[in-house]
Structure formats: C-alpha cells, structure tokens
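Researcher: Batch entry, complex prediction.
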Amino acid sequence: MIPFKLTEELITDIENFIETKNNSALLSLLEDIHYADIAEIINELNEDEATYIIKLLESDKTSDILTELDDDVRESILGNLSAKEIAEELDELDTDDAADIVGELPKEMVQRVISEIEDREHAKDIVDLLRFDENSAGGLMAKELVKVNENWNVLTCVKEMRVQAENVTRVHSIYVVDDEGKLKGRLSLKDLLTTSTKTHIKDVYIAKVDYVNVNEKPEEVARIMSKYDLEAIPVIDEIGRLVGRITIDDIVDVIREEAEKDYQMAAGISQDVEADDSIWELTKARWPWLLIGMMGGLGAASIISGFQEALTKFPVLLIFIPLMQATAGNVGVQSSAIVVQGLANDTIKGAIWGRLGKELLLGLVNGLALAFVFLIISHFGFKTTYLESIAVGIALVTVVVNAAVIGTFIPIFLNKRGIDPAIATGPFITTSNDVLGILIYFSIAKVILGF
Amino acid sequence: MIPFKLTEELITDIENFIETKNNSALLSLLEDIHYADIAEIINELNEDEATYIIKLLESDKTSDILTELDDDVRESILGNLSAKEIAEELDELDTDDAADIVGELPKEMVQRVISEIEDREHAKDIVDLLRFDENSAGGLMAKELVKVNENWNVLTCVKEMRVQAENVTRVHSIYVVDDEGKLKGRLSLKDLLTTSTKTHIKDVYIAKVDYVNVNEKPEEVARIMSKYDLEAIPVIDEIGRLVGRITIDDIVDVIREEAEKDYQMAAGISQDVEADDSIWELTKARWPWLLIGMMGGLGAASIISGFQEALTKFPVLLIFIPLMQATAGNVGVQSSAIVVQGLANDTIKGAIWGRLGKELLLGLVNGLALAFVFLIISHFGFKTTYLESIAVGIALVTVVVNAAVIGTFIPIFLNKRGIDPAIATGPFITTSNDVLGILIYFSIAKVILGF
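Model: Structure tokens for the complex:
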C-alpha cells in the first residue's frame, strides 16, 4: 500500500480550504484518508482549524479520529464542543474508547455528556467502566462482547447472538455464562452449527477458557495474551461474573507504552514525553534525574576532597577518575538492564543469591579483562609507576564487581517491595555507582600506596 | 484464570516420571498444561529429558511446543529427531512457523526433512517461504489465507472458501485476486451472504484493502498494523500478486523484540541476551561497550594530563570532574533517547535545524538551572573562590548545551545514513560526552582562571 505521508503542502491546502470555508473541497480531500491519518493532520493544526474539521465531518468518522489524537489536542477540541456534540461522538464509539474520553472530561461536563447519550444501555456501560482504575484490566476492557446463557437451547442462542453481534466489531469468541452471569466457558461456532437446535448450550460448551480478573495489571494481561496467542480475553469480576472483554489491539498499545516507559526511565526521563512536547514539559521530565546526577557529582567531589593527600602525593591517580566513574556506571546499567528485563518477562528464576553469585563472577571476568587492558595501555601511554598501575587495576576490578552486584541487587530489591524496577536502570544506578566507584578507587589506592 | 506457575516441585515430579519411564503419569500430568507452559517446563530439563517428552507426546501438541522453546533447547531436541519425525511436526504447523524451524536446521538436514513432509502442497509453501529474508514481511508471513477469484460467482466462491478455511486457524479476511493472482480487494462476509449465488465476485468486492510489500521491514509492518488497528494484512510480491498474510500475533512478537533490542542498546548490551544465558554469552554482549567506555576514560585521562598546570594551581577544579562527566552523560542520554524514540514512532517532524535549536534552548534552560544550584551549594559546601565557582558554573552550562546538541544530532545523523539510531543512546553517547565534557570543562576554566 502507498503509505500516507504527512506533507507541508497537504497541511497548507487544508488550512487554505478552512480559511476560505471551501467545505466541498475539504470533504472530498479527507474522504479517502484513514481516520488515523486525519488525526495526524489535525495534530498539526491550530485549535480553531481542528475544531472546524471535527464539526464538519460525520460523527462516525470523527469519533474514531478523536481516539487517535494527541491528548492535549483532543482536550482542546472537546472544550469547544457542546455536551450534545460530545455525546454524539460517544454513541459511535465502543464503550472502552468512550470511557477513556469521558475520563478526560472536566468533572462538571461528565454528568451532562452522559445524560445526552442517546443509547441508554451504552451510557450505562460507559458509566460502569468509569469505576475501574485506568491501570487495570477493568480500565482496558470494553463491554461489547457476545455471551449466551448455558440454559438456552441452540436456537435461542443463535437468535440472541445475532442481536448482540450487531454491536461488536469483531466477535472472536462466544462466551457462556450461567443465570448469575458467571463465566462458565466458551462456545465453538462449529459445534453450534452442527448441533440440533434443541440441544442445550450446557451440553455443548467448552469449559476451558482463559480469562483475567478485573483488577489484573495491564502488563500481566499483555503477558498472558501474547504468551497464549489470544486475540481476545474475557474479564471477570471478584465473584466470577463476566463483565467485559479485552482485545489484542488494546494490548498492542499496552506493550508499546510499557516498552517506551522502560526505555525512557533507563534514559533518565521521568514522564511520558515526546520530542514535540513543549520545552517546559521536557524540562520537567528531565530535571529530577539531572539533579540526582548533580548530587552524585557533588558527593563524589566531597569524597575526593577527603583524600587530600592523594591530590598532592599521587596526582596521577586523579586523571583516572573518569575511567573509574564511566566503568562503574556502564557496568551498573548493563547488569540492571538485564535483570529489569528478566523481571518484566518473568524469565528470572531461582534464588536471589544464585543470581548475585553469577553477577559477581561475571563482574570478576569483565573486571579482570578490563584491568589487563588497562595495565598494558597505562604501561605505554601514561607515566604511572608499577605500584600505581597495580593500585588502579585492582580498584578497577573491585569497582566492576561492586557495580555488577549493586546493579543486580537494586532492581530485585525494588521488585520485591512492589516498586517498578525499571526506575533502577536510569541515572539512579549510574549515579550511585559513580559515587561508590570513586570511594572504592581512592580507598584501595590508599591501602596499596599508603598515603 | 489461575496462572501457570513453574515450580521446582513440578520439575522434580516430571524428572522422576521420566527416570522411572512412568508414561501414563507423565501424560496425565501434561494433558491439562498449555503448550506454551510445557515449553517453559522443557526449557528447564536436560537434553535427554526434553527429547523424551517430545517423543512421548502427540505431534499436534509437540509442534506447538517446539515453536515456543528457547532457540538452543529446540536446536538440541531437533538434533535427536529423525528427518521423518521432524517432518511430522512440520505437517502440523502453519507454514510461517514451519519455515522458521526449517531455517534453523543444519543444511544437510533441510532437503531430507522437506522430502518427508506428507502434504506436498504444504512442503512447497514452506520451501517458498525459505527464500525470504527473515527480516522482511516475507519472512514473517504465512501462506495460509482465504482467497477467491474475482471471476468466480458467489456459489463457487463459498464452496472454495470452505475448502481453504480448513487450513486456516483464523480467517480474518477473504481476499480477492484476479486470474494472475494479483490482489484486487477483499470481500465482506455479510455481502457474500446477502447476494444472489450467481453474482460475480468482481461486482461485490471492496477494492480498498491495506497490504504490504513482501520486502517491507517488520517494524514498518508493525507500525502500519498497529496504527490502523489491523488483525491481519495481506502481503504482495513485486508484481502485485498475493503471496501471504501476516497476523497480529506475529506483530506482537516483533514489537516486543524491537523494544527489547532498543532497551538493551540503551543499556550498552550489544546482543540479544537474557539473564539466564551463560556467563560467556553475557560477557560477549557487554564487553564491546565496556571497552568503549574504558577508552573514553583513558581519553579523558589524557586530556586531564594535558592540563598539568591546573593540577597544581587550582587543585579544587579536579574534584568537580565527576560532576561534569555525570551531567554531560545524563543530558546526552536524555536528549538522544527522546530523539531515538521519536524516530522509531515517526513523530519527529520538521527540519533538523529546528530540532537542534530546540535542544539548544532546552540545554540552556537546564544548564542555567543546574549552574544556579551548583553556585549555591559550592558557596556553602566547598572551599572554592568566587572566580573558581563561576568558571565551574559556566563550564556546566556549556557542557549541558553541548551534550544536548550532540545527543540530538548523532541519532538524526545515523538515521539519515540508514543506521539504527538506537545504537547512539548507549554508552556511545555517554562516553563521547564524558570526554568532550572534560575537555570543555578544562578549556573554559583555563580561559577564565588563566592557567
């Protein structure tokens, strides 16, 4: 397919059409563009232009566009729409997307928008979904699904299914519930079609069905669905009643967002920001880590000040400060990244002591190899005495081993405490290893060189 | 659902059953366990035990297990199976999974395994898929799909579809091709069922269909499918013929792997490793970055040696080396991470100069704020003169601005050259900023303090 390309010419054309109120040209231009691409266009327009387009197009298209817009753009457009106009958009959306939008509305608006929704059943479902924590299976699920009662016969079942399926974009599975609404299993379409119409559902359904609890974390839902290759999974409440369904497209978003968050944390960015956000937002996201890094740097400065004798007696030691610091930081980040990823993928098994032992050994191998390279280079490249070189080499091995152990221990510790271990791989580990590295370096040099 | 838990007791039970050849106990234990979970169990067993289980279970279950195993475990099990046994597994698998396994076999084995596959059509499809680069849409796609000729009438179409659908796990879409096999569009099941049986397909099909070219990169396929919320996408060859189909479950794997790779690169790990890999593998993956970091550290050592006067006249400057280095490294990683992510998501628009200008401004804001904090702390905490503090402060601002600009420029530059920009966020940027930071620091201090 010819991929859609957002060009400056296209934006200029659209802005001109809006300015001259040339609606027919605008409609025919946008007609063949996918809603996800129109959302990209609107993200580039100003508030008035964006609102103009949303008001111009039909709500079956604009509702989908709204779900794809950047949060701040959507917020400002919704601010220009009446409660009735917003309700019309919500009527077109699946309950999960509708609830996400309602969740972003100002409190005083929510009540009014909900009361304007035409389909009262739909409105009730949206209100139900608002109760759930955004960061849970309940916050991800939609109410749209196809379910049949185990006490129905096949004929009733087929009739009811036809009605229900009208509201469901992709059926995926037919779920079976009992009189209390509890999930009992699922139904194979094939069995349904090859069974006598008088057979009861309870005699043909498959009792084995994967499901998740409404309070389950999105990452766990993502893990289950991708491990078992599921395209949809039913969600049950605390007493086992079928309350919703999560589909794979929502999970793709969870996986993407989770990966982005971990990546940003590893890079020392504390909020979800994008390259095109404002300077203020970007500064807020970066500032905490920069400050922690700075405190680390000042901490290291204090430590070095404490070894005054070294500054005068063995000035050559000072030139290797960056080496110690960089190595400690790198090893710490490497070790922690592997552990964090292992924890996220659930591939870390066995006892914590075994893991630490392995990292210790790994650090020793890497540290000895690095020290070996250092000894050769320092012999030819720097005017260090043998004793000085040996002191630096031993410090290097110790720093590496220490950084590896700390890099492993901190994420495991955070994870046990219920804190997202991804936070550990950022400048947090780098900084603490920087400072510890300097301390270890000078302490070992002091013992060996005796200042 | 009660999540499957891999316990040591379970492994011990299974090992005991294997040792005592208690097949019935083993079969009844494994019967209710999902193939993805059995794969996890087998990953923990030794080669003989693993092979025993694969030979014991039926090939409709073991074929799925094989696709989920760790690469090295699968390789050693396949080494213990005959060509005929492997062919039986392949007969059960979809063509894409089968081709992946054949691609891992030793060359001398491929021919023999292929010739043992019972379903010759299936064997031909697998051979077709082997031609494609693993890192392309062709390498991801399966041959299983439902397609109808535009010249058929609805009756023929329904008959043919029934036959084809037997080999396809999930139908998703019905594709329409012409006599030459070129993709023309898709068919809605609803239209098919509500149209007279004599109508020709060419009169009812929908010409608008998303597709990708067989040479498209997996990341681009993932981007398209997740942007347009597609659960399956057809693949065409160079002259437009429908040759395969990619489903969302394969794309979930691509997204996960891509995210993991970027994360590991950012953490300075150059190969795809897991926490449970051998010490040797882990060392290989980490070593290149450690060596680069070390070279950076030694480079910094040379620079400091070059400023000998500073060591004697202004010893206090030396204690702030870690501060400069840590700040430069952190800012560089932050800037590059945002750009790398923006490039990956295709959210970076506009000219490179605008982007650099923004980072420059951002660096200036952050740098000035950090320098302000530094001046306060150094005044109370360290015995620096006013001039020394000002020199360090100005150096700090310059180092931050420089790191921000470099962190932005390098990924954009690499991307333009067709190199994966993710490589830039690792110790590569940290290291070059470390070294540059020290150089800038001493140069500015030299100008201001005049040594």
